[in-house]
Write a structure and sequence with these properties.
Two copies of one chain form a homodimer. Chain A is an alpha+beta fold. The first copy, chain A, is about 35% helix and about 15% strand. In chain A, strands 2, 3, 4, 5 and 6 form a five-stranded antiparallel sheet that branches.
């Protein structure tokens, strides 16, 4: 949701340009500030950002994105498994990447392709199992299970269009890294063979769509061993998010994942369904994380107009929440997990705005929820890892340090 | 440049009292804040401050000033060498310090004296080499080279006029500290013997100047092993500074040292020559540190009027830079490496003002560059170690943490 000032908007940010009465109401009745989700200047990933916002020291506990993505996609990740984040992508005959997202392939096509890939048998590595599952659009998760695996392996995703698929390499000298590299290479090779002659792709080419003829992978990871939120704070915690990465982090944090019909993790998500589910979830949970991916998608696409429209939809969603929870006993905090620049189309290290409203909050004189108005607020400049203790303290769930 | 409010200035700071249109332009078009270069209340040294401003955790990597001073004076410091920061000073016959700077001895005199000192032969410690070099005015560097040396040794500088030269002592029980103490004692003794009957000093006394009849030393240090900026951020980085301590830190950080004719590290430095060199250096470097020592010198002398004049010269220098770089593709950050009080004449722990201008910066409504105006700015309060990640993020040189 957060961005930098844009020439196209008369040097306003999309948040500053949007019509957002509900966000402003939260700012007006609450305490505002800016927040370095990781630390000043450091662009957070969505995974490290969510870890920090849930109160974990991401710099210490983070061990790769792949495992979160898999967990969040209901792929069963066990300790010792190595998980990867995958994309369905389009390559030419020389394995040069033409589209890293295979035209943001529809879930339906991706599901059919994933089903075929899951049937593949590994020949060179007996005793090794794998799980492959598509998540949203071009996104997918791969989990490798077996003895003596390692996360010290590079992926095949060149992360840039026009470059050849990267060679998978071990990142240290261990036999585990070597073994994992070989398994991953065999899998990627077999996936490519199946995909390039798959009927779904033939059909896509006929329809003028880029074929999803390869899987590219990155972000080898395992599950971090963190104390669950219910144990850490004595709370029931739930997550309403469609993006599998966010769901994964929340599950690792011991939160319940609430499925919402129509929530897709895309700009077409059903904002109102998420609002209703949040109000419902707050009846039985002490803490509910409501996450919207849509604005980030618009930023990565550099679509400023869509970003503003999506902020306005988020605003309506929050309007429903404001109107349907008991504001005398409920705290609402609104923030972004990172700044995404519509110009660079990347996550950036600029701080995000934060506003917290609820009983006995030291509300300030800020009247608008945006990057620059909130910078003058009563919270000043905090860090992502501080947010959860602040919220838990407000609801009386923190323990005194000392006596 | 930063100071505290002064009665003499109607309780304004020198920065608040100075005429500074260019500094104000940077504040007006940019984002402002205050910065604890090390941490709140901690007075930074010039070395630890510069380490922090270059993005290093000074609390972890700092290992004494001496090595930086030596490196910055083009003295070749090798790993294992122990380096000291030295002053030419004036003592009476009982070794009581009359002037810690020998009347801020001119470079010419100091060079002649240093040449004689370098010729001295150590008698008690064979196999030990030393390098002695004068830098600016009364400042000099001493490097001791040999096996089994230690930085755990106190200096001879009492750091106060009217006190006797301090006895050099080992700071731990190790044989290395004992050996280094003995070597340093022998050197200081021999230096004093040569200096007190040196023709240059006889000449100085005739001219009514204090003789530079002793070397006092402090700040034993070695070279810290830090990742060079070019490697850390993928940038070309250059330093325009005359003070050897700053040059040393920059060299240790892997920056190119650019020599500027007329840049002296004193109030008489050629500000415009430094401005021109900066504009030139920005053509081939991603990052240029332009450092001015002069305001710090005026503060240590308690010379408020001169401090204001020097701030105004810095302002003119920055005016040239502003008028001669492409502001659509260049970021300018202006700050101080520490507050120096014109009253206590010491570095103080008050935060320093900071302003950053450039494309897509979230500019705020601050219109003046000074300690109190900037405190209301959009950066709020950051730390010195955060500045480099913030700047590197703006120029697209930071890596995302996470995915």
């Amino acid at each position: 949701m957060a961005d930098r000032p844009l020439k196209e908007l008369g040097w306003k940010t999309p948040l500053e340009a949007a019509h957002k009465p509900s966000l402003n109401q939260i700012a007006k009745t609450g305490i505002c500030g800016i927040m370095d989700v990781i630390s000043p200047g450091v662009p957070p990933g969505s995974d490290t950002a969510t870890l920090a916002l849930l109160g974990y020291d991401a710099l210490k506990v983070y061990c790769g994105r792949g495992a979160f993505e898999a967990v969040g996609s209901s792929v069963d990740v066990l300790p010792g498994d190595v998980a990867f984040r995958c994309n369905f992508a389009t390559v030419d005959e020389k394995l040069v990447v033409l589209d890293r997202r295979a035209g943001r392939i529809a879930n339906e096509d991706a599901s059919k392709l994933a089903e075929s890939l899951q049937k593949i048998k590994l020949e060179k590595h007996l005793g090794i199992k794998f799980l492959f599952k598509n998540t949203i659009q071009h996104r997918a998760a791969l989990v490798i299970r077996g003895p003596k695996l390692s996360t010290a392996v590079s992926g095949s995703d060149p992360e840039r269009v026009g470059e050849r698929v990267s060679e998978i390499k071990p990142l240290d000298e261990s036999p585990e890294a070597k073994l994992t590299t070989e398994i991953l290479k065999e899998l990627m090779q077999k996936f490519h063979e199946v995909l390039k002659r798959h009927p779904v792709n033939n059909e896509r080419v006929k329809r003028g769509l880029p074929p999803a003829n390869i899987i590219i992978c990155r972000g080898a990871g395992t599950i971090p061993n963190v104390k669950h939120l219910p144990e850490k704070y004595g709370i029931n915690a739930a997550c309403i998010a469609a993006a599998s990465l966010i769901r994964g982090v929340c599950k690792v944090a011991g939160m319940k994942l609430i499925d919402v019909k129509g929530a897709t993790g895309t700009p077409q998500t059903d904002f109102m369904a998420k609002a209703k589910a949040t109000v419902q979830a707050l009846k039985t949970n002490d803490f509910v994380l409501l996450h919207v991916k849509a604005t980030d998608v618009a930023s990565h696409d550099g679509n400023i107009k869509q970003k503003i429209e999506l902020i306005e939809k988020i605003d309506s969603m929050l309007g429903y929440v404001l109107n349907n929870v008991d504001l005398d006993s409920t705290y609402l905090a609104v923030t972004a997990d990172h700044t995404t620049s519509s110009i660079t189309r990347n996550h950036e290290g600029d701080p995000v705005p934060i506003a917290i409203t609820g009983p006995y909050v030291r509300c300030d004189d800020i009247e608008e929820y945006d990057e620059r108005a909130c910078a003058k607020g009563g919270l000043n400049r905090i860090r992502g890892v501080d947010l959860m203790p602040i919220l838990m303290n407000l609801i009386g769930k923190t323990k005194k340090f000392g006596a």
